[in-house]
C-alpha cells in the first residue's frame, strides 16, 4: 500500500516510538545463514534462533524472514505456529535493519525507515553489500499496509532506547561516529531524533560496551525496563576496560532527568565473562574480504542487557554459568509480571550481537489498511 508522502514529520503528526515494555502485536526476526559471520554454515546459530523465536512466541506472534534458498529449512526447523515469510536479507540483525515502529493516539501504526550502511559503510562497516537489508523496511511497510517515514539519518535500532514517555538514550560512540553521519553535528542529530521518534529529552552516554563491533550500541549497555528505570551492564573488575565504561555511564544516568522530570533509578546487571572466541569457533567461519574476520582470542561484547521484553516473557541470554543465575534473578525482580526465559546464546554472540539485536518488536496498534 502506498501512502502519500507527508511534508510533516512523524512528531508533528502525533506519532511516537513506544517503549519496548508496552504491549506488542508481534516480533520480527531474520534467519541466519551467511558462512562468513556464522560458523559451520550458521547451523549452530540457527538452532539458537529457533529457541529464541519459540520463547517469544509464547508471548506474541513471531515473524521470521528467510532468504529463498533457506525457506524450506527454516520452515521445517521452526515451530509451526511461527510465521515464516520470504524476506531477503544480507544478515540476520533485525533490530538494526528492520523498522523502528511508531504509534499514534488514534491507534495507527507507522514506521521510520532510517538510512543503513552496515555499521559504518566502507569505513569500518561489518560486511558488504547491504542492499537487501536496506529494502527490508519498505517490504515490511508494504506487508502491514502502514505509513513509512524516510529519515535522512543513519541509525540502527540497537543505537536507541526509549521510555515511550519522551526520553531517549544513545551513545556518542555510535551516533556521533564519522562513519554514520559525518555531515551532521550533535544538535542536528538530536533535532532529527526528536522529529522522527517524538522524543523530547536525549541522554548521551559516551561509549557502549567494550569491543562492541557496532561502535557502541546502547542496547548492549543500557536499556529502559520501566518509566524512570534502566538496567546497566556492570563490571566490578577495575582491570577490565568495561569497569570505567560502566561507571562513566552510571554517573551520567544518575545525574540525568527524564522528559517527565524524574531522576533515573539504575539497576546493575553483572557482565558475563570476560568472554573470548575459542580457536575452534573461529575456525568454523569462512574468511572473506567483504566481511569482518572472526579470530581466536577476540573479545566478545557479552552483555545480559541484550534481552527481549515480550508481552508475558523476558527472553535473556545465558552466557556464563558464573553469572547467569544472578542476572536472571535481577530480571525476575525487575519484571515480576513476566516469565524470564534463559536461552543459551553464545552462538548468537559469536556473530556479533545477541537476543535484542536479532529481534524487533511491533507495538500493539491498529494498522491502517486499504
TrEMBL record:
Catalytic activity: agmatine + H2O = N-carbamoylputrescine + NH4(+)
Coiled coil: none
Stored InterPro entries: Agmatine_deiminase, Peptidyl-Arg-deiminase_porph
One MF annotation (Gene Ontology) recorded for this entry: agmatine deiminase activity
Swiss-Prot/TrEMBL keywords: Hydrolase
Active site: 357
Enzymatic class: hydrolase
Cited Pfam families: PAD_porph (PF04371)
EC number(s) recorded for this UniProt protein: 3.5.3.12
Keyword Hydrolase: yes
Stated family: Belongs to the agmatine deiminase family.
Name assigned to this protein: Putative agmatine deiminase
Organism: Modicisalibacter tunisiensis
